[in-house]
Design a protein that fits this description.
Elements (H helix, E strand, L loop, with lengths): L1 H21 L7 H23 L2 H8 L2 H25 L4 H22 L6 H21 L4 H19 L4 H25 L10 H8 L1 H18 L2 H7 L2 H12 L7 H39 L1
Helix pairs in contact: 1-10, 1-12, 2-4, 2-8, 2-10, 3-8, 4-7, 4-8, 5-6, 5-7, 5-11, 5-12, 6-13
Amino acid sequence: MRSGLFNAIFAYIIWGLLPLYWKEFAAMPAGEILSHRIIWSFVFVAGLISLQRRWRELSVLFKNRATLLPLIASSLLISVNWLVFIWAVNNGHVVETSLGYYLTPLINVALAIGFLREKPSGGQWLAIALAGAGVVLVTIDYGSVPWVSLTLSISFGLYGLFKKKVKVDSSVGLMTETAIIVPAALIYWSYLGVSDSATAWTLPGGSLALLLFSGAVTALPLLLFANAAKKLPLSLLGFIQYIGPTLTLILSVTVFEETVSHVTMISFSLIWAALIVYAAASIREARIHASTLNARGGASN
């Protein structure tokens, strides 16, 4: 549990700060940035697999249909998530990305209840209600269907569910996901080359180096997230995720100078209150569970 919490917190801190990174490439089309993100992620993880000498595990995984199909689904979901996030950041919709990742924990809780049969306690239900109220308020304040937020939340919520269900090592699983989608990225690269519309190679040297580093920036939090997904309940994993959108919200106001209304701030305050209530309820449940186990152990002795 402790290592899972560490992995989740570190992953969400990285994700919360990523708008700063992608803004460096604001002049590039989102699709081109995505293609680089996929290809350099593949290269980074391939190097990791080589160092670990795990290519045989990968070949076995590709022959296992029961494992491969969920990984195909997760690779498509994360690709959609990446594309929408990059487009939103570079087109002045950072607040909407923050809302999207505030919505994701609610999606995770619904998926956990519906598919994994996790049963929230009374305190956890209260937290869910507070967070739901916050999300409804900010959606009403937004004034229209927040398609960016909904796409990000649903795609990443489903991605987390598939990662929870697939029992493979995190690096091997990520290698499979990137291998599945890298052909499409290479085809798009070829199109850009033939049409003479590639912009990446015209970037200044420092920006180009950062773009090549996008593989590590992408893979590291995904590896941490995959490890956390194995060790934490999906509903708890979702609530820890509030770290990411909170950092993104702070960046949207202080760095990108986007406008955040008073209603939105009230909504986010409700969501933070939900996080505190959920954490307190989860700690209480864990202590009760530990006391029960200790009592049973004492009785058996």
